[in-house]
Amino acid sequence: MEGPPENDCCSVCHGPFQVPCQANCSHWFCGNCIMLVWDHGSALQPCKCPLCRREITLLVPGEASLRQRQDPSISTILRKVETYNRRFGGRDNGLIQRMQDLPFFLRRLLRELMDPQRSLPLFIRARVYLAMILSAIYILSPVDFIPEAILGIIGYLDDLIILLVCVLHVAALYRSVLYFRHGGS
């Protein structure tokens, strides 16, 4: 989404969104509100989503906010969000956090791949397509580490692992793109 759903409000201030930001858990907040949540907690740890309690490791500002960057109040909030992303967005997260973040990153990546107006860097696009093609070739080929003909349903385990590794790799690539786009250096 370019911005938060219509007729929705910030779950922190319960008002209309001001500088909307989407967290890696897919929830939307006012940029200033989520920064206040973080300010009232530990400055050394990312804040937790007020709705689902998941750790927020990346905040992505809405497109409208980025277009209004010259406004001093919006610029101040976006700088705070960028600082937050620099501090917590580049961290190596555990496998559980990566699995929880998968739907968020894959939805955004798919939308970006399908939208001709948005452009991913060519090398990222190529790596995504290469990972998907190589995974499909392995899954569809008769050559397997664990052959289905001998072990039956257990033989599909290696196909599932390859698919999971591919999806995690693609999500990690896109996470790095978002990180550098919205606060990385």
TrEMBL record:
Entry GO terms, CC: endomembrane system
Alphabetical UniProt keywords: Membrane, Metal-binding, Transmembrane, Transmembrane helix, Zinc, Zinc-finger
Transmembrane segments: 122-140, 160-180
Pfam families in UniProt: DUF1232
Superkingdom of source: Eukaryota
Gene Ontology molecular function, alphabetical: ubiquitin protein ligase activity; zinc ion binding
KW Ubl conjugation (keyword) present: no
Domain named RING-type: residues: 10-53
Annotated compartments: Endomembrane system
Membrane association type: Multi-pass membrane protein
Broad class of the protein's primary localization: membrane
CDD domains in the record: RING-HC_RNF113A_B
Keyword Methyltransferase: no
InterPro entries listed in its UniProt record: DUF1232 (IPR010652), RNF170 (IPR038896), Znf_RING (IPR001841), Znf_RING/FYVE/PHD (IPR013083), Znf_RING_CS (IPR017907)
Protein name: E3 ubiquitin-protein ligase RNF170
Naturally occurring in which organism (per UniProt): Punica granatum (Pomegranate)
